[in-house]
Design a protein that fits this description.
425 residues; alpha/beta; Rossmann fold; Dihydrodipicolinate Reductase, domain 2; 3 domains; six-stranded parallel β-sheet; 15 strands; binds nicotinamide-adenine-dinucleotide
């Protein structure tokens, strides 16, 4: 490791503070937060109090921070989906290297414009496709590369969002409307498109997709339900009841004294009284059948890659747990795994199977199968040592965005197959 890197964080929300800012608390010798921008005063106060950011460099907007001279080696762009580009382009022009949250942008033209700007300025742009950095996908990549299953022929991948997580983010929350954020296949699954591209190792040629918003609509509201869960007469039978999700249901896994995400999204006061107040007044207390959501709640994508490899991807809101699975079949064997179990099984045809049980995921950085932390390690080393090689450059990341946006185009047009070379243009 070389010298400590300095960072300016634009958007000190869940990702900016908890996923990436926290790396400073874990490895203070590698990274220092020297500036923060966020319109919410409580987030700026948090930056000063918990992360030691200098008060004079805490700004009420990314615009105000970018009006200053260059303040750090790198800028983290961790604002909402459609607010990435307007900060990313001027930051590159100012000379910052970027850690850029996915999706790059919901607009393909903006994704391409950013790629061009990165080339023009010669700055590094690392996109937060954190899954590539996990031990799990690295193990799969290594086994494929050494020919463990012969020639890769097909892949089946699933993204099980979990009923409560889907209700939180995609029905009541920030990613519920395409127009305000992105289609779910981009917002949630540009990761999965990226992983498929990574594992197959060849460009995707064509996609087709089906899916819809079926369940979280007013026609499915049960008799006796109300605009807010706190007033609902049938909430005992409803798994999406906000009181259960945020206060009592251990299935969501956040209630053993961990007053963190998703509770911190509802309110800065995560006491029971604070959460009840948020459920009474804020968006997260709304009935899931009476929100203004429009993103699909289940979707499948078929993909064809160069060389004839095929893949099928399945996203569903309707799962008990929140996990990803994958199965890769090849001419000489198959590989199967579950990211959240950290388990990969290799079955060479006609020979005994091998089970790879990977390291348990550390508590502090459970985020994305350990990928959040491993990406941060990688990013700090890259900027500190002046390297250029990254697993998730802007160039490779744009490809996954084209795949996801083409899938959405197909879904909206009856599932017709889309040729990516035409779509990309
Ligand atoms: N890599 C991943 O796996 C992953 C996971 C979750 C979310 N994300 C992405 O990360 C991004 C941020 O998500 P989040 O959950 O942290 O959202 P968030 O709402 O918690 O954080 C966004 C922050 O930006 C701030 N902000 C708003 N306007 C601003 C402005 N003009 N200048 C500076 N800051 C401003 C908000 O106040 C908020 O604190 C989104 O694009 C999301 O899709 C990525």
């Amino acid at each position: 490791m070389g010298k400590k890197i300095t960072v300016a964080i634009c958007g000190f929300g869940t990702r900016g503070a908890e996923a990436y800012g926290s790396y400073q608390l874990l490895r203070p010798e590698e990274m220092e937060i020297v500036a923060v921008a966020d319109p919410r005063p409580e987030r700026r106060a948090l930056a000063v109090k918990e992360f030691g950011a200098p008060e004079e460099h805490c700004f009420a907007s990314g615009e105000a921070m970018l009006a200053q001279k260059k303040l750090a080696d790198a800028m983290f762009i961790t604002t909402q989906d459609s607010d990435h580009i307007r900060f990313a382009i001027p930051a590159l022009e100012k000379g910052y290297h970027l850690l850029l949250e996915k999706p790059i942008s919901p607009s393909l033209a903006e994704c391409v414009a950013l790629r061009e700007k990165a080339h023009e300025t010669g700055r590094i742009v690392v996109v937060c496709h954190v899954l590539r950095y996990t031990q799990f996908y690295q193990k799969l990549k290594e086994l494929l590369a050494c020919g463990a299953i012969g020639k890769l022929e097909s892949v089946v991948a699933t993204e099980n969002v979990a009923y409560w997580h889907f209700a939180h983010s995609y029905v009541r929350g920030n990613w519920r409307r395409t127009e305000d954020s992105s289609p779910v296949i981009l917002a949630k699954s540009c990761h999965d498109m990226d992983i498929l591209r990574y594992l197959v190792g060849k460009p995707c040629l064509r996609v087709s997709s089906f899916g819809s918003l079926d369940w979280f609509r007013s026609v499915n509201a049960p008799v006796g339900s109300a605009a807010r869960c706190l007033d609902c007469r049938v909430k005992d039978e409803c798994p999406y009841d906000a009181e259960k999700i945020y206060l009592t249901n251990p299935a969501s896994g956040y209630f053993g004294g961990h007053r963190q995400w998703p509770l911190t999204v509802l309110t800065g006061d995560v006491s029971e009284a604070g959460i009840r107040k948020a459920l009474r007044t804020g968006p997260y207390g709304r009935c899931v059948y009476r929100c203004d959501n429009d993103v699909a709640d289940h979707q499948i994508v078929n993909l064809e890659f160069e060389g004839g490899v095929t893949a099928a991807f399945h996203l569903s809101a309707f799962t008990e747990g929140c996990y990803r699975t994958i199965r890769l079949t090849g001419s000489m064997g198959e590989l199967e795994g579950n990211l959240d179990d950290q388990r990969v099984v290799l079955r060479p045809f006609g020979r005994p199977e091998t089970v790879y049980q990977l390291d348990p995921i550390q508590d502090e950085y459970a985020g994305h199968g350990g990928g959040d932390q491993r990406m941060m390690e990688n990013f700090c080393r890259l900027i500190s040592l002046g390297g250029r090689e990254t697993l998730t450059s802007i160039d490779v990341s744009v490809e996954s965005h084209i795949m996801a946006l083409a899938a959405e185009e197909s879904r909206l047009h009856g599932g017709k197959a889309i040729t990516l070379s035409d779509f990309g243009k």
